[in-house]
Amino acid sequence: MLKVEPIPAFQEPIPAFQDNYIWAIHDGHCAAVVDPGEAAPVEAFLAREGLTLGAIVITHHHGDHQGGVAGLLAAHPTAPDGAPLPVIGPAGERIGARTVAVREGDAVTVAYPSLQFKVLDVPGHTAGHVAYVADLPGAGPSVFCGDTLFASGCGRLFEGSPAQMLSSLDKLAALPGATRVYCAHEYTRSNVRFARAVEPHNAELAAWEARVDALRAVGTPTVPTTIGQEREVNPFLRSRVPAVREAVAAHAGGVAGNDAAAFGALRGWKDNFR
């Protein structure tokens, strides 16, 4: 059954800009924030919830994911123990305030709140993009994937190749099906419209479209979803499925030569979809 996973009390989306989500992970006392593109919404959230900022976690270098770091550091230069506030980010990206550089396979510990992340390299949207996987009490396996994987979609290829993005999505798709997917944008409605164009006969996708419309009609986030759900309704995790390959070939006027070429054609179709 398709559904949006309920957001645990200690994982909350902070809306920013037009459609960003800054994810706050907290224990009722301290919070880590993922991809704070703006400082003001984070400050308002911390004040409203009575939380102390304990860490900043960045997935990639784009300004709408790290633009609020300087302001947050100015207001919160230290962690609760008096040490400099940790700013965790990918080693291969331009993260000016980064204090902890991470790469594939690293295990990263956050003290406030108590968290441990495993790092995955997921290039494609940017060259050094990473995702953070954690097994969180009360939520279970979770992945904070920035702009690599979206609900029913994936990020544009600004710096990487189709082969890189396909490999990154394969890595995420291999996570346990129950893994909650915390992406950084509310793009689901437009993503689902495209997915329906690719797979008009996908019954799971039709049901998900109705659910998305109902959620957005009342301003409710459509995320987190799960890896298991994305395998059923996300064309970019289904680019090897015969129905998807046939739709791509029909749109492109020919059959792509390999998996990466088919994925690239699918991504190009989405880039120009209206």
TrEMBL record:
Residues annotated as binding Zn(2+) 1:
H60, H62, H125, D147
**Family per record:** Belongs to the metallo-beta-lactamase superfamily. Glyoxalase II family.
Cofactor info, note text: Binds 2 Zn(2+) ions per subunit.
- Name the chain's protein: Hydroxyacylglutathione hydrolase
Cofactor(s) needed: Zn(2+)
Gene name as annotated: gloB
The record's annotation in InterPro entries points to: Clx_II_MBL (IPR035680), Glyoxalase_II_hydrolase (IPR050110), HAGH_C (IPR032282), Hydroxyacylglutathione_Hdrlase (IPR017782), Metallo-B-lactamas (IPR001279), RibonucZ/Hydroxyglut_hydro (IPR036866)
Q: Which residues bind Zn(2+) 2?
A: D64, H65, D147, H185
- Reactions catalysed: an S-(2-hydroxyacyl)glutathione + H2O = a 2-hydroxy carboxylate + glutathione + H(+)
What keywords is this UniProt entry annotated with? Hydrolase, Metal-binding, Zinc
Per the UniProt entry, what are the Gene Ontology biological process annotations, in alphabetical order?
Answer: methylglyoxal catabolic process to D-lactate via S-lactoyl-glutathione
Per its UniProt record, what NCBIfam families does this chain match?
A: GSH_gloB
What residue stretches are annotated with the Metallo-beta-lactamase domain? 19-185
Record-listed E.C. numbers: 3.1.2.6
Pathway(s) it belongs to:
Secondary metabolite metabolism; methylglyoxal degradation; (R)-lactate from methylglyoxal: step 2/2
At the top of the EC hierarchy, this enzyme's class is hydrolase
So what does this one do?
Thiolesterase that catalyzes the hydrolysis of S-D-lactoyl-glutathione to form glutathione and D-lactic acid.
Q: How does it assemble?
A: Monomer.
What's a Gene Ontology MF term here? hydroxyacylglutathione hydrolase activity
